[in-house]
Specification:
Elements lengths: L1 E4 L4 H11 L2 E4 L1 E4 L5 E4 L8 E5 L6 H17 L4 E6 L18 H11 L4 E5 L13 E5 L2 H4 L9 E5 L5 H11 L3 E8 L5 E8 L6 E9 L3 H12 L4 E9 L5 H8 L3 E5 L12 E3 L2 H9 L1
Parallel strand pairs: 1-2, 1-5, 5-6, 6-7, 7-8, 9-10, 9-12, 12-13, 13-14, 14-15
Antiparallel strand pairs: 3-4, 10-11
Helix pairs in contact: 1-8, 6-7
Bound molecules: ribose-5-phosphate.
Length: 293
């Protein structure tokens, strides 16, 4: 088995290759003068099983294109099986067309990956279950919860919170595995597209320690508004467990001011400038285990 690292997250590829005792090849990615990408795999991979690791995070289009080119290169070089690992799969939130004349972008991305010659795709905590239907190749959806749970053990007097309808299944799994109650925040968007949260259903959060479980922190609005709402409903403390740290501009400041008890995020997306109030937990072990199955 050979792990080929795309340029999005070399360190994660190194860690996974180490855990798999597999050879690591760093893809040779360059640009033409007009900025088109040009990739090369500087290794004879004929007859070998390859794992291509690339998060299709910001800059999503470049990372995606690099991934597709690497898959094509691996196919043409005669590899026996190509597994693509996208710890963070970009475009996942565009998984349905809510308006006329819009694409279902995530479905198109799935087709592009397949057409590039990929045999299997492994992603971490897919945004929605419906993404599974977009792929006809083998798909592994790696559950990050085993990374977060130990931080809260022995678990006591917590309420697990879903910050919106989309994360109910995720938070419910956490609640079930920790044997703690679940609360759900009713999130909607107003006519300006701003996130509005007013209601909490399910268990009461009064005098409780809350753990918000979500897949993505992007602008930080969802998680910080959820924390504020829980506090106005009498929560003692609020912690967060988030799989993908997109952290668009301004997110870190919002998180700082929201004063989370603890804020955990995995390293599906490379970030070398995390502030001390955010704790990084590595997904490398769970990805390696999944690849060994
Ligand atoms: C929404 O469906 C996702 O699960 C996240 O809650 C959302 O993408 C987070 O985005 P932001 O941090 O910009 O509120």
């Amino acid at each position: 088995m050979i792990v080929i690292a795309g340029s999005s997250h070399t360190q994660l590829a190194i860690n996974i290759a180490h855990k798999l005792s597999a050879e690591l090849v760093i893809a040779n990615t360059q640009r033409f003068a007009d900025q088109e990408l040009k990739v090369r795999i500087d290794k004879d991979i004929r007859g070998r099983e390859v794992i291509i690791l690339q998060s299709t995070c910001n800059p999503a289009n470049d990372h995606l294109m690099e991934l597709l080119l690497l898959a094509d290169a691996a196919k043409r070089a005669g590899s026996s099986r190509i597994t693509v690992v996208t710890p963070y799969l970009g475009y996942s939130r565009q998984n349905k067309n809510s308006h006329l004349h819009e694409p279902t972008s995530a479905s198109l991305i799935a087709k592009l990956i397949e057409v590039a010659g990929v045999d299997c795709i492994a992603a971490v905590d897919l945004h929605s279950e419906n993404l599974i239907d977009f792929f006809t190749i083998e798909l592994r959806n790696i559950n990050p919860l085993p990374l977060f749970l130990p931080f809260f053990l022995p678990i006591y007097d917590y309420v697990i919170v879903s910050p919106d309808a989309g994360s109910i299944a995720r938070a419910a799994k956490f609640a079930e595995q920790s044997n703690e109650p679940l609360a759900i925040i009713d999130k909607s968007r107003n006519h300006n597209g701003e996130c509005v949260m007013s209601k909490i259903t399910g268990n009461s959060v009064l005098n409780k320690n809350c753990i918000i479980v979500d897949d993505i922190v992007d602008t930080g609005t969802t998680i910080c508004n959820a924390a504020a709402l829980l506090k106005t409903h009498g929560a003692n403390s609020v912690a967060a467990c988030v799989t993908h740290g997109v952290f668009s501009s301004g997110a870190m400041d919002k998180i700082k001011h929201a004063r989370f008890e603890k804020f955990y995020v995995t390293d599906t997306i490379y970030n070398n400038q995390l502030p001390p109030y955010i704790t990084l937990v590595s997904i490398a072990g769970l990805i390696a285990n999944s690849l060994l199955k």
